[in-house]
């Protein structure tokens, strides 16, 4: 890996740029994971950050959590008779 330097005043600073690896958006679960990593898994957070994989990891966690949540909601709707469409038509207040 070759680094290029930029002269700023009397100092030569490395020209560090990040690749745009963003594959999706980071919502609630991605932000919760980010907060957890920052406070509880600092070494793993730093490793992901330096390898430029943090965003991809957070997007992946977010997608997995959303999928799991949707599956749980669908299963809950199927099991609970009060949430069925037929019961909603009959007992709207319930």
Please describe what this structure looks like.
The chain is mostly helical. The protein has one domain (23-90). The chain is built from 4 helices and 2 strands. The chain has helices spanning 28-40, 42-50, 54-79, 85-90; strands at residues 5-8, 11-14. It has a two-stranded antiparallel ribbon with strand order 1-2. Helix 1 crosses helix 3 (54-79). It is rod-shaped and about 80 Å long. It starts with a strand and ends with a helix. The relative contact order is 0.11. The mean pLDDT is 84.
Strand count, sense and closure of the main sheet? 2 strands, antiparallel
Overall radius of gyration = 23 Å
- Regions with little confidence, pLDDT below 50 for 5+ residues: none
Question: What is the total tally of β strands?
Answer: 2
Can you tell me the overall shape? rod-shaped
Mean pLDDT: 84
Q: Give the amount of beta strand, in percent.
A: 5-15%
Strand-and-helix sequence, N→C?
A: EEHHHH
**Count of all domains:** 1
The secondary-structure class comes to: mainly alpha
What is the number of helices?
Answer: 4
The helical percent reads 55-70%
Give me the side-by-side strand order of the main sheet: 1-2
> End-to-end span in angstroms?
65 Å
Multimerization state = single chain
